[in-house]
Amino acid sequence: HKYSGRKSIVTIPKNVKIIKTNAIDGLKSIKKLIIPNTVELIESFAINNLPNLKEIDLGNVNKIKEYAFWKCSGIINCNADAKPYIWDKNWNVFNNGIIFKKRIKTNYSV
Question: Is-contact 83 100, C-beta < 8 A?
């Protein structure tokens, strides 16, 4: 399904497993995009031409194809510790800033 709303913050629904080509395209209203951990694949050219996008919160997506974020600006906050090897090398061709979150593992003793 193609998103055509006018919200400034858009959250992909948790029941979405694949963000398909041209799913979000040419919307000037979007300033923040939240992609939950339930998304498994982002296809090529899935998220296109969002000139006012400032931030993307990217869950632990298993696979991202080339040019997934085409003509998008903004910082990409990734829940992954590092770029998974199965993400295409050109997934972020516009070189958006990327912040990979480090998970803190703590052992508790009682």
Answer: yes
- Of 33, 39, 81, 82, whose CA–CA distance to 64 is shortest? 39
Question: Each residue of 56-106: pLDDT tens digit?
Answer: 888 888 899 999 988 887 778 877 666 777 788 887 777 667 777 754 333
Give the pTM: 0.80
Task: List the structure tokens of 104.
Answer: 């803190």
φ, ψ for residue 98, nearest 5 deg: -125, 130
**The pair of three-digit structure tokens given for residue 79, joined into one six-digit string:** 């829940």
Give DSSP secondary structure letters for 75-86.
EEEESSSS--TT
As given in the structure block, the two tokens for residue 63 are 């696979």
